[in-house]
Amino acid sequence: PLLVALGPKFDTGQDGDVAKRFVELEQWARMSLPVGDVAWRWCNEDYDTADRVPYAGEPDPDKASGFHIATGFNAWGITNGTAAGMMIADLICARSSPWQKLYDPARSYPEDFHKNGRSQSIVSSIDDIVPGMGGVIVRGDEKIAAWRDTEGVLHPVSATCTHKGCTVTWNNADNTWDCPCHGSIFAADGSVIHGPARKPLAPAAL
């Protein structure tokens, strides 16, 4: 039999030591339950919005009339997803919905929408980056995300997320660059794993 142990919530790109969370979770499981070897481990992202209310409906009815989205359920997809589906069905059928204004994806953002845009992986020197790890180097106005492979070779890319320009953080559990603002995740080489970013991290030189 397999036992699934769930860890505490943390925000993508805002934790400088994700691997520690897996260690603590395993320690708790071993202290609390008769468990064997770890078969798998993973991080999961639940999309959330700035005001904690999902987006559902037409994000831009003037430019893309009839194009609907439903996202940002923050692990409440069974309830909010059902409500969003019912509302979108009403809109497609030209029926009014009492939830349209509540879920409106074009509603205004709070003023502090980008407040968590700082990297948790800033290092003072490339010498601080050990094999298998990554760090962000600040050089004037430029921020460089550098990953050192197991052979000691550095692989630099821009630390600026291609979605909205926040500075990425190294995820030492998954070996990825994670955006602290909107949850985009990039591979160690800067390629996109998933969005909202669509373009890879730009090349950079040290």
Write the layout of secondary structure elements.
Layout: H1 18-32, E1 55-57, E2 69-71, H2 77-92, H3 100-103, E3 122-123, E4 134-139, E5 142-148, E6 154-158, E7 169-171, E8 176-178, E9 185-187, E10 192-194
Please identify which CATH superfamily of the domain at 122-194 we are dealing with: Rieske [2Fe-2S] iron-sulphur domain
CATH topology of the domain at 122-194: Rieske Iron-sulfur Protein
State the major sheet. 4 strands, mixed
Mean pLDDT: 90
Cα gyration radius (Å): 20 Å
Q: How many β-strands, per DSSP?
A: 10
Helix content: 10-25%
The CATH architecture of the domain at 122-194 can be named as 3-layer Sandwich
Structure annotation, total helices: 3
Element pattern in H and E: HEEHHEEEEEEEE
Find the structural class using helix and strand composition: alpha+beta
Widest sheet: strand ordering: 3-4-5-6
- For the record, the CATH class of the domain at 122-194 is Mainly Beta
Multimerization status: single chain
Outline type: flat
Q: How large a portion of the residues is in β-strands, by DSSP E? A: 15-25%
Given as residue ranges, the uncertain stretches (5+ residues, pLDDT < 50) are none
Cα distance spanning the termini: 49 Å
Describe the structure.
Among the domains are: 55-103, no CATH class; 122-194, Rieske [2Fe-2S] iron-sulphur domain (Rieske Iron-sulfur Protein). It has helices at 18-32, 77-92, 100-103, and strands at residues 55-57, 69-71, 122-123, 134-139, 142-148, 154-158, 169-171, 176-178, 185-187, 192-194. It is α+β, with helices and mostly antiparallel strands and 206 residues long. The strands form three sheets. It has a four-stranded mixed β-sheet, with no helix packed on it. A four-stranded antiparallel β-sheet has the order 7-8-9-10, with no helix packed on it. The relative contact order is 0.14. The protein is flat.
